[in-house]
Amino acid sequence: xxxxxxxxxxxxxxxxxxxxxxxxxxxxxxxxxxxxxxxxxxxxxxxxxxxxxxxxxxxxxxxxxxxxxxxxxxxxxxxxxxxxxxxxxxxxxxxxxxxxxxxxxxxxxxxxxxxxxxxxxxxxxxxxxxxxxxxxxxxxxxxxxxxxxxxxxxxxxxxxxxxxxxxxxxxxxxxxxxxxxxxxxxxxxxxxxxxxxxxxxxxxxxxxxxxxxxxxxxxxxxxxxxxxxxxxxxxxxxxxxxxxxxxxxxxxxxxxxxxxxxxxxxxxxxxxxxxxxxxxxxxxxxxxxxxxxxxxxxxxxxxxxxxxxxxxxxxxxxxxxxxxxxxxxxxxxxxxxxxxxxxxxxxxxxxxxxxxxxxxxxxxxxxxxxxxxxxxxxxxxxxxxxxxxxxxxxxxxxxxxxxxxxxxxxxxxxxxxxxxxxxxxxxxxxxxxxxxxxxxxxxxxxxxxxxxxxxxxxxxxxxxxxxxxxxxxxxxxxxxxxxxxxxxxxxxxxxxxxxxxxxxxxxxxxxxxxxxxxxxxxxxxxxxxxxxxx
Length: 534
Fold this sequence. Notes:
Elements: E1 2-8, E2 11-17, H1 19-39, H2 55-67, H3 73-85, H4 103-115, H5 123-133, H6 143-151, H7 183-198, H8 234-250, H9 254-270, H10 282-294, H11 302-311, E3 315-317, E4 322-324, H12 330-343, H13 351-362, H14 395-407, H15 413-429, H16 466-478, H17 486-498, H18 512-526
Antiparallel strand pairs: 1-2, 3-4
């Protein structure tokens, strides 16, 4: 196999491993890993584990609980302890493990800890406050953080990005409409529009506030939307549009506003899933019930009661701490677990695989979701990432599930054949006009929207990407398609156009280039593309 290195005392020491030694080591790892993975399977047939996240999730869950008056003291203490345990030595909280402090999340974490009972004089809070103030204070908070802060009176509502709810009335043929945003941003936008139109403020005790994060008195603080470094830039132009929209928001037409609010309310309620959740992801889980509460829904209303109960699905209790996850991932976990077991030569008829196959078949979605706005004639048949998310099945999960079901033996072969056929048909039907594949929608590529004030991390669209395109090709190869099929041909061409000069592909939904490159190569190989060709 050639040279490898081991690290001793921080020093890389080269050593040689023969091919036979390497294969033996892998075989031994497989022998040990297979039983361990099977042991983690739930009785119902799926796999489920915590989805790690940064401080933002725990902080927003605590803020949400205070807004909707659903605080559970023991749970809040565990969520707060997780925040304290993940605080960095400089007092901040980061965007990803090992990264530098991230201001918005640090502000939210600080405020959440205050709500949970921490004192401003506590050492962790002193360190956090010093770090936050040194970087601009609360007025430098990001867009989403400002909405959470405004809902509990920590910043004025005028500090939030202008999002007139009348935007909900724009038709789908209009160049700018809600369906040009990615699924996660779309549901979030509806909630934020309803919140901003209602401008609720829940009063809290003075000692739980975060006013000490202001660098100057509130009366003299000017909140501005984040600016681009270049004066003449798309983001700065859109900031001007934000100011225009803000003027309209203060002088709106009452009849049009009422109609738009009704439209937003109807859209939000219609998108509630069977378990009470919204959108399958944390911002929608939390912000939608907040918006409905602002519109007058009480906690004992069936919609609210189910919504609040559903938020508890996001919490993974570790005993002394708890994590609020971005979402739950049983279908994705199950598909990857089955694929790993099959790829490591577990018998396709093994009871664990049969049970997993039944679980996956029973969770296929035959309902039209938001994806049908741009693919109205495509028959449904995808799968979601989560237990419940019928409005947003995703191409990635569906492709992996189809390829694993095709290789797995189940008792009901007719049900399996139907799942594979309808699933594959839905997946390939989601090809975008550029030939690639995205996660939740087709042709969701208006990337200029990533410069809106709403877009904190410039990720409010769902464009084609290498990992999804490669995954679909791998699925197509698994069920018998080759590279000369028109769908595969366009996908292969997309990958060739987007390969970097160094030979890699960037992965959107995994760890950058390694993820994108292995996904693309696996897909190309599956449909018969010669990987050694120039």
